[in-house]
Design a protein that fits this description.
The chain is mostly beta strands. It has one domain: Immunoglobulin-like (Sandwich), CATH 2.60.40.10. Strands 1, 4, 5, 6, 9 and 12 form a six-stranded mixed β-sheet that branches. A four-stranded antiparallel β-sheet has the order 8-7-10-11, with no helix packed on it. A two-stranded antiparallel ribbon has the order 2-3. The radius of gyration is 15 Å and the shape is globular.
Length: about 150
């Protein structure tokens, strides 16, 4: 199930780019934490202040939907188990900016997670079944695809 998420901005107004809110309008969003209805079928909820992300990719339909919208998301991450080459979910994900400030924390990321971030340097940690992978990445004008594969 796709989840489009945004932190609330000043005065409780959702901070979501127009294309982000419409990118998954045909998909049902996951209802978690403090929901705020943005549209009939998209639910926004709080995360790290300022964070906007899309999480999903379970099943072919969701994967195709997310891939169609990928160009709108500067950081695009996928998570898989290398042993059987299958996507995995339930990934503990943390994304930090160049100053060490957390810009995103998720307990159950994957199999695909897209994040709205400004261009710059980021440190990513992804944990699955007790094994943690780390990446230092640069998000440039064309964005970045970061793939995390566990040995299984």
């Amino acid at each position: 199930m796709l989840a489009l998420v945004a932190a609330l901005g000043m005065g409780g107004v959702p901070c979501v780019p127009a294309h982000a809110a419409t990118a998954t309008a045909s998909s049902r969003a996951v209802h978690k934490e403090s929901p705020v209805k943005a549209q009939e079928d998209v639910t926004l909820f709080t995360a790290v202040p300022g964070a906007v992300y899309l999480n999903g990719g379970i099943g072919q339909d969701e994967q195709m939907s997310m891939r169609r919208d990928a160009s709108h998301w500067p950081l695009r991450m996928t998570f898989s188990d290398k042993a059987n080459d299958e996507f995995v979910a339930d990934v503990g994900l943390k994304v930090f900016d160049a100053h060490g400030q957390a810009v995103l924390r998720l307990k159950d990321a994957g199999p695909m997670t897209y994040v709205q971030l400004p261009q710059g340097e980021y440190h990513i940690t992804a944990s699955y079944r007790g094994d943690t992978l780390t990446r230092n990445v640069h998000v440039g004008p064309r964005g970045l695809d970061a793939n995390f594969h566990w040995a299984g």
